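TL;DR need structure tokens for one chain.
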Amino acid sequence: MAGVVAEECRDLLAGRESEIHIFWRVGRSFDQFSSLASTRQAFILVYTVRMNRSLSVRSKKSHDAPAAEKSAPKHRFTMASLRGMQQPELSKKLFKIIKSENHAIGAYESASRERISIASQISDWGEATGDDSISDISDKVGVLLSEMGEQEDLFAQNLEDYRSVLKQIRNTESSVQPSRDNKAKVTEEIQRLKYKEPQSTKLVQLEQELVRAEAQNLVAEAQTRQKLKEAYDLHSAAVIERGEKQILLARHMRRLVQLLDDTPLVPGDVRPAFEHSAQARQVLNDAEEDLREWQPSFDPIPSSATEMGSNLMPASVTGDTTNGKPAGEEGD
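>> reply
TL;DR here they are.
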């Protein structure tokens, strides 16, 4: 088919390639290319333009792939995906978020390994140049790059802690869904009886059941709010720590690079021996000390969860002043 189309393209579109590309580049629709009357000619035009566009990776990325596909890569189907499909709607959405975060964490772990590998490669390259100054600077740059890679791995670990809290929210949402369904069912039944049998003795029983269901929902809502704050407290703290430490390392790397003399030489000149080895070592010492002394520069996110009783109801209501661990916080 491609061969036939290519042959017909040479006959039908000979000498008009530049005109085709003009229409394509200015974003004009194919319908406006009025001289192409038949459907087959239009198809050949599309095929020809797409063949030409495939020669450019940049144009292929910007035109062929929808934005949603570029921003959200597809992942393989697993048994975990099947479990997610069988959960209640709210839990299903959280399951998808948790799964996506797992892929993101894997990407950071991969970036950490690549960064450490690059650090080793830049050090080896510098040594192979035979230039003492480049060898010394590239080796120490490699040390800082390697530490940047370690910070990426630490960031991935911190994100895993945040992801674990999301799992707790998912489990809470999953466990409370039957209560929510029951509450909706009881509410509907109460409304029906009030309309048809307002004197029914069953109303009292249903109203008591409704109160119990509402209490269970309030407990779940309190835990969800608490855990959501905790999750993004961990997430934002991890992002800030990663950013500040990476900036710290980058500033020391700039100090290192400044020690490298890049003055042009003319034939016959000899570059002076590298005289900044001690300063370069001091830069690494300073970087190590700064990392060791780093402290969070952000205020903690306040929480009212300490005012909750052991059953996650307000202590002022339950009279519970203990500081027990809220129910339902088992690990995943």
